[in-house]
Write a structure and sequence with these properties.
Elements: E1 3-6, H1 16-19, H2 23-26, E2 36-40, H3 42-50, E3 55-61, H4 70-74, E4 80-84, H5 86-93, E5 101-106, H6 113-117, E6 122-127, H7 132-144, E7 149-152, H8 162-167, E8 177-179, H9 188-196, E9 200-204, H10 216-220, E10 224-229, H11 237-242, E11 245-247, H12 260-272
Parallel strand pairs: 1-4, 3-4, 6-7, 6-10, 7-8, 9-10, 9-11
Antiparallel strand pairs: 2-5, 3-5
Length: 285
Amino acid sequence: MRTIIGITDFEAPELDVYARLREPQLLHFGTDGSGIFIAESPRVIGRALDAGCVPVSFLAERRHVEGEARKILERCGDIPVYTAELDVLTRITGFRLTRGMLCAMRRPRPLTAEEACRGAARIAVLEHVVNPTNVGAVFRSAAALNIDAVLLTPDCSDPLYRRAARVSMGTVFQIPWAYMEEEVRWPDKGLALLAKLGFKTVAMALRDDTVDVDDPELLAQERLAIVLGTEGEGLEPGTIAGCDYTVRIPMAHGVDSLNVAAASAVAFWELGRKRGKGLCFTMED
């Protein structure tokens, strides 16, 4: 039996996680400090549940409780469901909800880099990618284009931020990922760890001394780590120098580069395509 609670008091503390706490504050929220995250839309929430994430409460448009959200809610037992009309929810959250539904969920136990990479043949490594939209888009491309895991440097945006998870279409719950621990100093110790795990590293960079992204030697490598940096600054010089290969995507019409999300899709397609099974995702949000 679901517990349906109509919203009458905007200042109710139960709504803090949706209305007043910033996402960095949610990282260590709760009595044990393990944190929560906010998943948006039935598709994302469903994939989080499939991955074993534990729901705490829902915030949903009233009409969706017995509509689009019903199957999701039926999976969650007696979890509080706070409801109101869409305009009220928009006032509470400050944005228009995708498919009229949010869910506060407990953060899963973080993986180590070794755990995330176990059994992987192709992984992505994100360096200094702070835009959650780009992080989410990289995860979606990774899931669609045969990348087995994603590693992030400590200053990257959290893949469980609401926008990152939504843009990823919930694939952040399907692709193993981990932050490089602070003690695994990037790039020196991080690249050494990747080598220890058996990966050859590929720096995506705007340089002339590069190999083609479809180079047969690259495609023949059993384990590849594709290292991508933020748009504009690109990868750190030390990262490029420490990688086994440097790859540049050929550009036309005077365009100097792609943004990291677009570049990741090209690199993943070329370096993972011989392992693919024709996977695709729709553009539906």
